[in-house]
Amino acid sequence: MNFESLLKIKTFGELKKSGYTTRSVKTELRENLIQLLREKKNGFPGIIGFEDTVIPEIETAILSKHSILLLGLRGQAKTKIARGIVSLLDEYIPYIEGSELYDDPFSPISWFARNEILTKGDKTPLAWLHRSERYTEKLATPDVTVADLIGDVDPIKAASLKLPYSDERVIHYGLISRSHRGIFVINELPDLQARIQVSLFNILQEADIQIRGFKLRLPLDVQFIFTANPEDYTNRGSIVTPLKDRIESQILTHYPKTLAISRQITAQESKLEKSQSEHIEIPDLLKDLVEQVAFEARNSEFIDKKSGVSARLTISAFQNMVSSAERRLLLNGESKTTVRISDTLGIIPAITGKIELVYEGELEGPAKVATTLIGKAIKTLFPDYFPSPEKSKKLKDKNPYAPIIAWFSEGNRLEILDGLSDKDYAKELNKIPGLKFLVDKSYPKEPASQKLVLMELILHGLAEYSLISKNFLENGFEFKDMFQSLFNTELNEDDLDLDEDRYN
User: Fold this and answer.
1) Do residues 323 and 411 lie in contact, with contact meaning Cβ atoms separated by under 8 Å?
2) If you placed Cys at 9, which of 14, 114, 302, 457 could pair as Cys (CB 3.0 to 4.6 Å)?
3) Tens digit of pLDDT for each residue in 26-65?
4) Predicted TM-score of the model (pTM)
């Protein structure tokens, strides 16, 4: 019988006549997953990069009817995975109408549900619960109590109903109790106080609860999923050993392993506005550059590797980069524009708020670390687009970068400012002899807008390889001769010495 027909059933008697049978949550998840695997369907849509690592382990745990601990650094889709498991539940299940715990009519556990079946029998009214309402999530914080999770005696209820505290009807059920027949997730489990973790022992092992000395067995049917960050697990708290022993499957998550996978995740999660997608062109180079910044950050000596670099960094950085281009478009009254490398200045706020610096990084400062990461990302990607400047130096007359470097060595400077219109942007870049020729030769079929970005890439690349100088301005970049820049630096230092002598 399909769900449309089942939803027309309104009483327990009708449900029994239909031949409907209930299943435990873990059996439900297992059998629905088996069906999906047989049909070669993806049971975790939207989870990218875990197809050959994390997802198979989760599927194995579900087939084994295990509670699950997802262990990984920040921004590794742990919560997204937990929420995705809801799709493996039946679309609707029946429950006794009015029941706080969504009691199964075939196996009621609360006093209310048992009394309904006892007094009304087959005429007991039923309601249907959608799977989206069978998911409960709680962030573990130090102030969480046993009453929050399990339940407690409600003196107001006892007084209003004129019942003694020994009557189970005076219980106010907690979040876990109310998750009966559903999925319950505790995020950041190590942050839960040890004495609160102890209260979970019985639920995980014996599937029942204990409240304030009540001699009450409440056989809850719950699929537990926990998440934890290894950094938290070692530094801020811990999972008590008996609890960890009761969580049958521990699954390690990880960051994207390739730029392509990282780009897929960013594209899925960034959610650009329609106007941004329609009016702003985003070259693949810039998409790769944002992702490469995160890869550089995860290997940086300035950043705490134990803390991790969240995938949220690239998502926020991508949004900021596009918005920087959009701001320029609006200020210049243009209808369309292309994201430029200079727009990466806009991603610095997205980086500084999402990295944990070690001592050396703190000395440098978060903004300096962010610009260093962007520079390293450019240097890493540059050889994928143009010949290596280091190897080209040995070619002498055949060095494709020689005319560009020579132009700067003659004392010329170039400023790429944030607010340059597309017309002025092109005008500035076309000043440099040999720059357009090199891009036209390497990428003859690229549209003009993309060629301009590649021209800017060459300047940034040469600066990262220390062949020309790049200075950060308040609203853009300045490129000039490397040796002139070094000379000016030495001159300024000499002037400073003279000034100091004046006060000695």
Assistant:
1) no
2) 14
3) 999 999 999 999 999 998 999 999 999 999 999 999 999 9
4) 0.86
